[in-house]
Amino acid sequence: MIGMPRFARSSLVLMAAVGSLAAPVMGRQAAPEKASILKLSWLAGCWEGGQAGRRIEEQWMAPGGGAMLGMGRTVKDARLVEHEAMIIREEQAGLTFTAKPSGQQEASFSSIELTDASVVFENPAHDFPQRVIYRRQGDGSLLARIEGTRDGKVKGIDIPMRRAECAGPSGR
Fold it and tell me: What is the pTM of this model?
């Protein structure tokens, strides 16, 4: 700064002062929005899909108490072949999807992506799947997907579903 005109030195000092005041504000990032279970309201209700004699059904309760409860079943040739109890919870770190499939240990997955039309849950330590995905399609249908690595190979299974009438007293 020696040899600089006095007004230039004053300007530099002023700019440095303003910069030091602005740095904490500029460097501060907005706190991420807490993942709200309400963003998944579109998932509530009954869904069905399947092919080749397999009928896949899922039913999700509307958000309440910071959670959504779900259940699923697969029926083939009029016999129950798989069933699953599920819950999506609001946690401090985001949403957590926990599933208890028939004949398997319970597993939990953390949300890594949440939009108004999709959610991706992940658990890299789980055997298969490592990701569980729900996507609302433009036509109102649902694409559920599980994916991950099994036996060293990347694998994905798509389960397209459409809205269904929830079974009443007569059942299905």
Answer: 0.78
